[in-house]
């Protein structure tokens, strides 16, 4: 446990990169991106640029938790605007069962 921040990942060298980012004044999102980049070098068989991501991020400014499920494949040229037009959706949430929601259950 730490009162000043911590990181967790499967590769100790990548973890050190994240810790250094926090020491240098970065936030959790900065550290996570740095760790992901370092893992591409330190553990290339387990991660890759453009790979999957699950994120729960608490914004102290907004006092809200934001979630991101960036898993599965998506078409290279699909834009958010096109996806919204395809599903006829104008809010921030997509229907659970649609081809653009790659990992729908």
What is the strand and helix layout of this fold?
Layout: H1 12-23, H2 28-42, E1 53-59, E2 64-70, H3 80-87
Antiparallel strand pairs: 1-2
Helix pairs in contact: 1-2
Account of the 3D structure:
This protein has helices at 12-23, 28-42, 80-87, and strands spanning 53-59, 64-70. With 105 residues, it is of the alpha+beta class. A two-stranded antiparallel sheet has the order 1-2. Strand 1 (53-59) and strand 2 (64-70) form a beta hairpin.
Largest sheet: 2 strands, antiparallel
Helix content: 25-40%
Strand order of the largest sheet: 1-2
Point out poorly predicted stretches.
none
Structure class: alpha+beta
User: What string gives the helices and strands in order?
Assistant: HHEEH
Our estimate of the beta-strand percent is: 5-15%
Shape: globular
Q: Could you tell me how far the N terminus lies from the C terminus, measured between alpha carbons in angstroms?
A: 35 Å
Backbone CA Rg: 17 Å
Count the DSSP helices: 3
Oligomeric state, counting identical vs distinct chains: single chain
Number of DSSP strand runs: 2
Mean pLDDT: 81
């Amino acid at each position: 446990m730490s009162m000043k921040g911590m990181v967790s990942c499967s590769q100790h060298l990548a973890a050190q990169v994240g810790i250094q980012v926090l020491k240098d004044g970065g936030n959790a999102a900065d550290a996570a991106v740095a760790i992901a980049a370092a893992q591409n070098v330190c553990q290339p068989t387990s991660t890759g640029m453009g790979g999957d991501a699950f994120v729960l991020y608490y914004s102290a400014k907004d006092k809200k938790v934001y979630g991101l499920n960036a898993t599965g494949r998506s078409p290279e040229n699909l834009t958010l605007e096109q996806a919204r037009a395809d599903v006829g959706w104008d809010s921030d949430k997509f229907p659970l069962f649609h081809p653009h929601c790659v990992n729908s259950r």
